[in-house]
Specification:
This protein has 270 residues and is an all-beta fold. 0% of the residues lie in helices and 41% in strands. Strands 15, 16, 17, 18 and 19 form a 5-stranded antiparallel sheet that branches. Strands 3-4-5-6 form a 4-stranded antiparallel sheet, with no helix packed on it.
Length: 270
């Protein structure tokens, strides 16, 4: 993006993820005129899909939609121009995130909606049409119906004093991280490399609390393909999950890092 809110893009376009007329690779940045909005405040990328958030809370999406990852209510091979994501009751979105083939957004009302591929339970419910409780409902993530093309609100147990308001969300290849204002982190979805941070390598659609070190309050989370990152209010970073190529930022010879106590790296203030 630029100060004039123009959106530029380059790279692969074989799934129309650049919303340009040609489907060939684009080697230099080009303005994406098809967005046709002058108030874009954020853009995010999925595996082969693209998303934009406008200043009025409208979300746009385009590109690959085989798993319903555009959130427009239908599955199609590709969508070559930006379309509005379906948002219930026109509640504005304030935080838009994308995983490989799924996405989610937080609204001004504090609700979380998720859409796209749910093969590993990364959307937080067992079946696209089942709007179960995110933190307390048992679900089988091996459903044959593994896509949810329409954004589905994941109900939060607001009456519980153990779960705070969501303030940060992140999506990886097949897992989702949720951060609440009380400093906790919850994870769901694909967990083969320990990226859920619950001390196991299981895959689950039930959001599970991450085993954080004591006295650490998390304020923001991020995901790689199969690893997870959390930032504390004291300027520290915690990482866990797949670390074969050093992406965890600490010395670890194994592929799986399950114990967060040994993965703390201090960010030096400049």
């Amino acid at each position: 993006m630029t100060s004039k809110t123009l959106v530029w893009g380059c790279g692969a376009n074989d799934s129309s993820q650049l919303a340009l007329s040609q489907l060939s690779h684009v080697l230099s940045p080009q303005v994406l005129d098809s967005i046709n909005r002058d108030d874009i405040v954020n853009v995010v990328c999925g595996g082969t899909s693209s998303y934009a958030l406008a200043g009025d809370g409208v979300c746009l999406s385009w590109g690959d939609n085989k798993k319903g990852q555009l959130g427009i209510g239908v599955t199609t091979p590709t969508v070559n121009k930006p379309n509005p994501i379906k948002i219930t009751k026109r509640v504005p979105a304030i935080n838009l995130k994308a995983g490989w083939d799924f996405g989610c957004f937080l609204t001004t009302a504090g609700s979380l909606s998720m859409f796209g591929c749910n093969r590993d339970g990364q959307l937080g419910f067992s079946k696209p049409q089942q709007k179960s409780s995110l933190f307390s409902s048992s679900a089988n993530s091996n459903s044959s119906n593994d896509s949810c093309p329409e954004p589905t609100t994941v109900r939060m147990p607001w009456e519980s004093d153990q779960v705070g308001k969501l303030i940060s969300v992140a999506c990886g290849m097949g897992h989702t991280l949720l951060c609440t204002d009380n400093g906790e982190v919850w994870a769901m979805g694909w967990g083969e490399f320990g990226q859920l941070g619950d001390g196991t390598t299981r895959t689950t659609s039930i959001a599970t609390k991450v085993l954080l070190p004591p006295n650490h309050k998390i304020i923001k989370v991020a995901c790689g393909m199969a690893h997870s990152v959390a930032m504390t209010d004291g300027g520290q970073m915690l990482t866990w999950g797949w670390g074969e190529y050093g992406q965890l930022g600490h010395s670890s010879n194994g592929l799986i890092q399950l114990n967060n106590n040994n993965i703390e790296n201090k960010i030096k203030n400049k």
